[in-house]
Design a protein that fits this description.
Largest sheet: 8 strands, mixed
Radius of gyration: 32 Å
CATH class of the domain at 3-234: Alpha Beta
Distance between the termini: 56 Å
CATH superfamily of the domain at 3-234: Spore Coat Polysaccharide Biosynthesis Protein SpsA, Chain A
Strand order of the largest sheet: 13-12-11-14-17-16-18-15
Strand content: 15-25%
CATH topology of the domain at 3-234: Spore Coat Polysaccharide Biosynthesis Protein SpsA, Chain A
Number of helices: 23
Structural class: alpha/beta
Number of strands: 18
C-alpha cells in the first residue's frame, strides 16, 4: 500500500453492449461528482460491437467530456473488454462500472478518495432495487463462493470497483472466461498482499435495455470457474520498483503479504518459496519408494541406502583430499605486493561504498566507526552507509548523537517484510554512490589496506571476475575452547578450502562479509536474495551460473567468534537452513542445470547437497558405529549384514582416514593463519 503516492485521478473503464439509453446519464453523473471532489478523470468505453446507437452516442459525448471510444478487438465478453480498457488507462487509479446505471456513478468519487489508505475498494450491495432472483443469486454467490470457498468477506460479484493501476499490473490478470473477472481479481489481489475495503451502495433496477447476465448458462459458468480459480496455484507476484532503472521499492506479493525486497530478482531464483511442486513430488516419490522397500525387504533396502551413503562419503573424502592438495600446491588467491600499494596514488582512486547493516547493535557502532577510520583510502572518496531499520529507534538515536564523520551517512531502511540483512543491503545498493562496494558487519575489523588490495586485484583479474572475497577470521581465538574451534574452522575454510574451489573453477560460497564488487556488476546480478538466510552463498552460486567467477584476495577481516554454545547452535542452524534453501533454489530445473555445466552440477551437489546430507545423517551413523562396538552382542551381527565387503572398506576408509584427514586439514589451516 502506497498512500503517500496517492493522486486524485482515475480512469473509468466501462464495457458496453447495446446501452444507448443509459450512457449519456452515466457520463453526466460521473462528470459532476468527480469534478466536485477535484478528481481528474478520463472515461474509456470498450464497446463489444453494439448493434444499436451506443457507439454514435459515445462519439457525441467525447466532444463534451474526456471520453474515448474503443471498439472491442479480442474475444467477446465483459472480462476481455475490461482487460482491453486497463491497457489504455493512463491514470494511477482505475474504476470499473457497468453501463446500465444499476451501480451509482456518484460512488466512484468517494471510492477513489478511499484509495489513500486502501489498494482496492469494492462496492458492497447492501440493498437492492432489483429482481428477487438477482438478489438471491448475488447473496448466495457471496456466501457460498466468496466467504466459504475463498474467505473473501466482500461482494465478490460486484461490478463496481476502484483500485490502484499497480494492482492490475502486478497480478498480471488474464481472465479465464467472459463473465468471471470479479471473483478472480479480488482473490489474486488479496493473495498478492493488497488491502481490500468496501463501500456500501444501493443496487438499482436497470432503466433501459436488457440484462446480459442471468441465464442458466452464465450462472453455471460463473460457479464452475470459481472452483477452477480456487484450484489454481498463484505464484509470487512481482511488485515494480518506485522508479524505472532502480530496484528501490521492488518486491513480491505472496500468500496475502507484501514483501518489499528492493530487488527485481525473479521469484524462481529466490527462496521466497523453498520447495516448488516438482521438488515436493520428487521427494514424496523417493520417500514412498524407501518406505515400500523397507516393508518388502528391510535388510535389502537398508543395505542399498548404506551403500549409497558410503559411496558419497568416500567420494567426499577423495574430493577434499585432492582439493586441499591442489590448494596447497598452487594457491589461487590474488596477492598484491607492498610495492604496488605504495605506487598507488589517491588521485587515481574512485569512490568506494561500504555497507554496514545493523539491527539492535547500537553498542557496537563506535567500534565499527573506529575500524573504518583506520582504512587506507581517501576519506573524501569513502561512502560509508549505516543501514538501520526503521523500528530500531535506539540504534538510530545513538548513531545520530555520535557526530559521525562526513564520509559516514545513516540510511533508515523502511519497515517492511522480510526484515533481513540482505533486504537491508539491497536498500543500500540502491543508494550507493561508489564505483566499488563492499559489505561489512558491525563487529568487523578489516585489514587497513583491504580496499586498495581489492581495487588493485580487480585490475589484475580478468573480466570474468565479478566478486573478490577477502578472508575472514576471529580476533578472540583464545577466549575459550569454542572460539578456538571456530578459529581453526575459519582458517581452514578461508585460507585453504576456498582457494581450492577457485582452482577447480566452481562456485564459491561467499562469506557473509568482506565481499567486494563493482557496483554495476552487483546491480546486474540484482543484489541479494532477501529470503535466503545464507544470501552470501546463494549469490556466489548465482554469480557462477551466469558465467562469472569469484576470486580470493590475500587480505583478512577479523570478526568476533561466538563464545556461547547457544549462539553457536543458532548460527549453525541458520547456516544449515540457508544451505538447504540454496540447494533447493538452484536445483529446481535439474536438467537445465546439468546441461549448462556438468562438472559444476556434480561439484554443486557434492559441496552443497553433500554437506546437508552429512549434517543430517552423521548423528545416526555415529550412533550405529558406537552401538556396534559397545553393544556388539545385541546389534553387531545385524549391522554387519548391511556392510558387504566393498561397502565396508569404503565406510572404514571414510571413518578412519577421512576423520584423520580433516583433523590434519585443520592443523594446516591454523599453520597458514600463523604465517
Amino acid at each position: 500500500m502506497k498512500s503517500k503516492n496517492f493522486k486524485k485521478e482515475v480512469s473509468v473503464v466501462i464495457p458496453t453492449y447495446n446501452e444507448e439509453g443509459n450512457i449519456e446519464e452515466l457520463v453526466a453523473k460521473l462528470n459532476s461528482s468527480l469534478l466536485a471532489d477535484g478528481i481528474t478523470y478520463e472515461v474509456i468505453f470498450i464497446d463489444d460491437h453494439s448493434t444499436d446507437h451506443t457507439q454514435s452516442k459515445i462519439k457525441a459525448l467525447s466532444a463534451i467530456y474526456p471520453v474515448e471510444l474503443f471498439i472491442k478487438k479480442g474475444k467477446k465478453g465483459k472480462s476481455y473488454s475490461l482487460r482491453e480498457g486497463f491497457a489504455r488507462a493512463s491514470y494511477q487509479n482505475i474504476a470499473i462500472i457497468d453501463g446500465d446505471l444499476q451501480y451509482p456513478p456518484e460512488a466512484i468519487a468517494k471510492m477513489v478518495l478511499k484509495l489513500r489508505n486502501l489498494d482496492v475498494v469494492v462496492a458492497d450491495r447492501q440493498s437492492y432495487h432489483d429482481t428477487f432472483s438477482r438478489r438471491i443469486f448475488s447473496k448466495t454467490f457471496k456466501k457460498v463462493f466468496g466467504k466459504f470457498l475463498f474467505d473473501l468477506d466482500h461482494d465478490v460479484q460486484s461490478g463496481l470497483k476502484v483500485f490502484r493501476k499497480e494492482v492490475i499490473d502486478v497480478i498480471n490478470f488474464r481472465p479465464s472466461s467472459p463473465w468471471t473477472f470479479d471473483l478472480e481479481f479480488l482473490h489474486r489481489a488479496r493473495e498478492a498482499g493488497y488491502v481490500i475495503g468496501d463501500f456500501v451502495i444501493t443496487f438499482s433496477k436497470r432503466k433501459e435495455g436488457t440484462s446480459k447476465v442471468g441465464s442458466v448458462r452464465a450462472i453455471f459458468e460463473i460457479g464452475l470457474n470459481a472452483i477452477k480459480v480456487k484450484l489454481k496455484r498463484i505464484p509470487p507476484q512481482a511488485m515494480p520498483p518506485h522508479t524505472a532503472g532502480s530496484m528501490m521499492g521492488a518486491g513480491v506479493g505472496f500468500k496475502r503479504k507484501q514483501f518489499v525486497t528492493h530487488t527485481t530478482l525473479h521469484y524462481k531464483k529466490s527462496a521466497v518459496r523453498t520447495f516448488v511442486l516438482s521438488q515436493k513430488f520428487f521427494i514424496g516419490v523417493i520417500i514412498a519408494l524407501v518406505l515400500v522397500g523397507l516393508v518388502i525387504n528391510l535388510i535389502g533396502t537398508l543395505g542399498i541406502l548404506i551403500a549409497l551413503l558410503s559411496t558419497i562419503y568416500f567420494l567426499d573424502v577423495v574430493f577434499n583430499a585432492g582439493l586441499i592438495f591442489k590448494s596447497l600446491r598452487n594457491p589461487q588467491e590474488i596477492v598484491v605486493t607492498d610495492k604496488e600499494l605504495q605506487e598507488l596514488k589517491d588521485s587515481n582512486l574512485p569512490v568506494y561504498t561500504i555497507l554496514c547493516p545493523l539491527y539492535k547493535e547500537a553498542h557496537i557502532i563506535p567500534q565499527f566507526i573506529e575500524a573504518i577510520s583506520k582504512i587506507s583510502w581517501p576519506k573524501e572518496k569513502l561512502d560509508v552507509i549505516l543501514l538501520l531499520e526503521e523500528d530500531d529507534n535506539n540504534s538510530i538515536d545513538v548513531a545520530k548523537r555520535m557526530g559521525l564523520p562526513s564520509y559516514v551517512r545513516i540510511a533508515v531502511v523502511p519497515d517492511s517484510q522480510p526484515k533481513t540483512k540482505p533486504k537491508a543491503c539491497n536498500y543500500g545498493l540502491s543508494i550507493a554512490k561508489g564505483e566499488y562496494l563492499v559489505i561489512y558487519d558491525a563487529e568487523d575489523i578489516p585489514d587497513t589496506m583491504q580496499l586498495k588490495k581489492a581495487f588493485l586485484s580487480f585490475a589484475k583479474a580478468g573480466s570474468e571476475i565479478k566478486c573478490l572475497q577477502a578472508k575472514l577470521n576471529y580476533h578472540n581465538p583464545h577466549q575459550n575452547l569454542l572460539t578456538r574451534f571456530f578459529t581453526a574452522e575459519y582458517s581452514l575454510w578461508f585460507d585453504v578450502t576456498l582457494t581450492g574451489y577457485q582452482s577447480i573453477n566452481t562456485s564459491i560460497p561467499l562469506g557473509g562479509t568482506s565481499n567486494h564488487f563493482r557496483t554495476i556488476d552487483l546491480i546486474s546480478l540484482e543484489g541479494w536474495d532477501p529470503f535466503n538466510v545464507t544470501e552470501d552463498a546463494d549469490l556466489g552460486v548465482r554469480l557462477f551460473k551466469q558465467g562469472f567467477r569469484t576470486a580470493i584476495i590475500d587480505s583478512t577481516t577479523l570478526e568476533e567468534a561466538n563464545s556461547k554454545w547457544g549462539n553457536w547452535i543458532r548460527q549453525r542452524s541458520r547456516w544449515i537452513k540457508g544451505y538447504m534453501q540454496t540447494y533447493l533454489v538452484h536445483t529446481r530445473d535439474p536438467y537445465a542445470f546439468l546441461k549448462s555445466n556438468r562438472q559444476h552440477s556434480f561439484l554443486f551437489n557434492l559441496i552443497f547437497g553433500g554437506k546437508i546430507a552429512f549434517i543430517l545423517i552423521n548423528p545416526f551413523l555415529w550412533l550405529a558405529t558406537i552401538s556396534y562396538f559397545l553393544l556388539y552382542a545385541y546389534v553387531g551381527p545385524a549391522i554387519e549384514r548391511l556392510y558387504p565387503s566393498i561397502v565396508f572398506y569404503m565406510a572404514g576408509f571414510s571413518l578412519i582416514f577421512g576423520n584423520f584427514l580433516y583433523l590434519f586439514y585443520y592443523m594446516i589451516g591454523c599453520m597458514k593463519r600463523e604465517e
